[in-house]
Each structure stands twice: as C-alpha cells, then as structure tokens.
C-alpha cells in the first residue's frame, strides 16, 4: 500500500508541476511580413470590364477585360460565393478573360493584383 501511495503522490506532483511549468503567453500583434499582404485595388478606369457567361451545359461566369492603359496591368476577377480567377497580366491594348472555376458564383468586381 505504501508503494502505491508514494507512486500516486509522485505522479500527482509531477503532473502539477507540468501544469505550472509553462507560463501562458499572449502573442503580441505582429507587423505583416513584406509580400504577405496583397493589395486589391479596383481596376483603373482605363480598363473596360464586361460581365460574361461561358459554357454549353453549365454556364460559368467571368469578365472580359480590355486594357486601354498605356502600361500592362495585373488583373483578377473577384466572385462572390466561390473561387476568384487567377491573377493575369494584361498588356497594353490587349484583352483577357477572367473566369471562375465554379458555375454557381456571383459577380463581384475586377481588381488589380
């Protein structure tokens, strides 16, 4: 009986010391690391945006964009309720199609990326 009592006492003492050994720490807010933040500003006014649907049996939503700016722009189609399009570089005086990979999305906007 003595061995059992001393073993449980030691075990309880060890668990108690483990509970108090590591102090709880609250993480301080950290500044964003360069490259972590993606700025998504609205597409410039020199970019023409037209909403489209594409597909035969299933209609996928997207945007046809025309870059009328003097320089190339990186653009992305944003959709509500699903995946956004990939970020695509559109050259000056060029056109591109920004599509969602899901048919049930809603239109939202075109942004720079």
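Q: What amino acid sequence fits the structure above?
A:
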């Amino acid at each position: 009986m003595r061995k059992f009592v001393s073993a449980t006492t030691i075990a309880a003492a060890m668990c108690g010391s483990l509970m108090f050994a590591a102090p709880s720490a609250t993480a301080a807010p950290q500044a964003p690391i360069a490259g972590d933040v993606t700025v998504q500003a609205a597409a410039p006014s020199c970019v023409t945006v037209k909403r489209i649907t594409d597909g035969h049996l299933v209609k996928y939503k997207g945007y046809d964009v025309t870059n009328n700016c003097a320089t190339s722009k990186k653009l992305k189609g944003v959709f509500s309720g699903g995946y956004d399009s990939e970020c695509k570089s559109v050259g000056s005086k060029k056109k591109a199609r920004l599509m969602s990979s899901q048919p049930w999305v809603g239109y939202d906007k075109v942004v720079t990326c």
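Q: And what stands out in the fold?
A: The first helix runs from residue 2 to 21.
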